[in-house]
Design brief:
Oligomer: single chain
Strand content: 15-25%
CATH topology of the largest domain: Rossmann fold
Protein name: ABC transporter ATP-binding protein
Number of helices: 13
Largest sheet: 8 strands, mixed
Membrane topology: Peripheral membrane protein
Subcellular location: Cell inner membrane
CATH superfamily of the largest domain: P-loop containing nucleotide triphosphate hydrolases
Strand order of the largest sheet: 6-7-8-3-9-10-12-11
Radius of gyration: 21 Å
Family: Belongs to the ABC transporter superfamily.
CATH architecture of the largest domain: 3-Layer(aba) Sandwich
Helix content: 25-40%
Organism: Advenella kashmirensis
CATH class of the largest domain: Alpha Beta
Order of helices and strands: HEEEHEEHEHHHHHEHEHEEHHHEE
Distance between the termini: 35 Å
Length: about 325
């Protein structure tokens, strides 16, 4: 099987931002990664690094915001999503690419019963089903995502469900058309630790059963280690390191990746304290010259202040954008 056939999604040199074409404020620049068929790809980084913007740009879910793709391609099923208009994308959204969001407490319509909300999606994507068939399919989806007593939950209002159950309802909606790609934008952020584990396990089981690919956005490297096959680390609108999870965790080459790992309790020697990363990511449009991480990097040299590092392939499964990637050994 050739490389293209193994990939369900290819994002190539994507430059996108908010505003009018030619004058937009870039939120992401030069973003490149691939999601392989049947695998989970983790997109990692602190808040404000461009992870959610990258995912929303794939199917252009920005509401009324003036969002523009200035450059790059988003290849899905052999077609460039970046070149499609809204009508063409409507045939992709929900049917072939679905998305679940990070806050289940606000994602559902509080004025509609849970079953009716799922049924609305089912009717839209399965034209010709009778009311009885729609109800049966909705109940089956609720059961598939682990909701007990799905017949009773069908008539429940969103406020009657816990955060974990609401997230399961959103997953049921996303899976209603058995998509090829599921984008999960920090799906467990608003949930407690126990429910987080249950939801992530559910996504893992569904991925294996259905065979779909998953693009998982998270700031939690522990989640990436347990649930992802491949990953990319994002900082200030750029990919700074990418490759297989096993390779990057065993041999991180970018100072930002290593700083994130040093802030992960399981990765730190019990006799040493966690190492916080000083400062915070720059806001869009306020990026420093040179490497964007250099103001927070203890390994920065003069070159880092002035010259943007190339994202170079180190091995078949590992790429990194750092001037000192060859000389700094962890």
């Amino acid at each position: 099987m050739n490389a293209a056939a193994e990939q369900v999604l290819q994002v190539e040199n994507l430059h996108a931002g908010f505003g009018q074409r030619g004058r937009a404020q870039m939120a992401i620049e030069g973003v490149t990664f691939q999601v392989k068929k049947g695998r989970v790809f983790g997109l990692v980084g602190e808040s404000g690094c461009g992870k959610s913007t990258t995912c929303r740009s794939i199917i252009r879910l920005f509401g009324g915001s003036p969002f523009v793709i200035e450059q790059g391609r988003i290849l899905f099923d052999g077609k460039d999503l970046a070149a499609m208009d809204d009508q063409q994308l409507a045939g992709i959204r929900g049917r072939k690419i679905s998305m679940i969001f990070q806050d289940p407490m606000t994602a559902l319509n509080p004025t509609m019963r849970v079953g009716d909300q799922v049924a609305e999606i089912v009717r839209r994507n399965h034209v010709g089903l009778s009311s009885t068939q729609v109800r049966e399919k909705v109940v089956g989806l609720l059961r598939e995502v682990g909701i007990t007593s799905p017949e009773r939950r069908f008539s429940a209002w969103p406020h009657e469900l816990s955060g974990g159950l609401r997230q399961r309802v959103l997953i049921a909606m996303a899976l209603s058309c058995a998509p090829q790609l599921l984008i999960a934008d920090e799906p467990t952020t608003a949930l407690d630790v126990t429910i987080q584990a249950q939801v992530l396990r559910l996504l893992h089981d569904l991925r294996e059963r259905i065979g779909m690919s998953v693009l998982l956005v998270t700031h939690d490297l522990g989640v990436v280690a347990q649930h992802c096959d491949d990953m990319a680390v994002m900082y200030a609108g750029k990919i700074v390191e990418s490759g297989s999870v096993a390779e990057i965790f065993a041999n991180p080459r970018h100072p930002y990746t290593r700083a994130l790992l040093n802030a992960l309790p399981a990765h730190v020697d019990p006799e040493h304290k966690l190492e916080p990363i000083p400062g915070e990511p720059p806001a869009a449009g306020q990026y420093p010259a040179g490497c964007r991480f250099h103001p927070r990097c203890r390994f920065a040299i003069d070159r880092c202040h002035n010259e943007i590092p190339d994202n170079e392939q180190l091995t078949r499964e590992h790429a990194c954008a750092c001037h000192r990637k060859e000389e700094i050994l962890w």
